[in-house]
Design brief:
The complex is a heterodimer.
Chain A (H helix, E strand, L loop, with lengths): L3 E4 L2 E4 L5 E7 L5 E7 L5 E9 L2 E4 L6 E3 L9 E3 L8 E8 L6 E2 L3 E5 L1
Parallel strand pairs in A: 2-11
Antiparallel strand pairs in A: 1-3, 3-8, 4-5, 4-9, 5-6, 7-8, 9-10, 9-11
Chain B lengths: L3 E4 L2 E5 L4 E7 L5 E7 L6 E6 L5 E4 L2 E5 L5 E6 L8 E11 L2 E6 L3 E6 L1
Parallel strand pairs in B: 2-11
Antiparallel strand pairs in B: 1-3, 3-8, 4-5, 4-9, 6-7, 7-8, 9-10, 9-11
Classes of the chains: A mainly beta, B mainly beta.
Chain lengths: ~110, ~110
């Protein structure tokens, strides 16, 4: 099993550009999460999903969108990138237990 | 929203020393989790605590779930250089059957050989 994979690893965007951060897990986990981690801070929940077709907002959803068409994939969409979205983005998944498995992260810089 | 206060924010210790860090909240959590994050990596779960008062060990790590369910601590005994990293606590609550996690701001540990 590859676990949770995220692409790209690093990206630079110009203000106003859009992009999709990809997240895939091969553990057949129902629950998936997107977090952002700002420098020197903990993780803030952006969006989460309890299963295919079901998503909900977390603490900081503004400026982002998600979809969950399959169990494996949970992409995060930035429509109009802003400097405030410069951060490291982590995807996580879990099954019934509370143990979340995190991906390696995507580092995003918006200039 | 809910916040977790984690302390200390950072610490330098000598190799072989014991380390203690804690996490407090104004809210009650059902579960406390402790993660470690290495540079450039995602967090990895160290210990999960499910009951108030529970004391759990994982090798040189020991964590406890506070009786009030509003705090937790993590101890590392006989620290080694590979213990370097950021340690995060996280509290879990359940709303309508869905778990949500609140993360602390982290304790940055540096071990001096």
């Amino acid at each position: 099993n590859a676990g949770v994979t995220q692409t790209p690893k690093f990206r630079i965007l110009k203000i106003g550009q859009s992009m999709t951060l990809q997240c895939t897990q091969d553990m057949n986990h129902n629950y998936m999460y997107w977090y952002r981690q700002d420098p020197g801070m903990g993780l803030k929940l952006i969006y989460y999903s309890v299963g295919a077709g079901i998503t909900d907002k977390g603490e900081v959803p503004n400026g982002y969108n998600v979809s969950r068409s399959t169990t494996e994939d949970f992409p995060l969409r930035l429509e109009l990138a802003a400097p405030s979205q410069t951060s490291v983005y982590f995807c996580a998944s879990r099954r019934l237990s509370e143990i979340q498995y995190f991906g390696p992260g995507t580092r995003l810089l918006v200039l | 929203g809910q916040q977790l206060n984690q302390s200390p924010q950072s610490m330098f210790i000598q190799e072989g020393e014991d380390v203690s860090m804690n996490c407090t909240s104004s809210s009650i959590f059902n579960t406390w989790l402790w993660y470690k994050q290495d540079p450039g990596e995602g967090p990895v779960l160290l210990i999960a605590l499910y009951k108030a008062g529970e004391l759990t060990s994982n090798g040189r790590l020991t964590a406890q779930f506070g009786i009030t369910r509003k705090d937790s601590f993590l101890n590392i005994s006989a620290s080694i250089p590979s213990d370097v990293g950021i340690y995060f606590c996280a509290g879990s609550t359940t709303t309508s059957g869905t778990y949500k996690y609140i993360f602390g701001t982290g304790t940055r540990l540096k071990v001096l050989a």
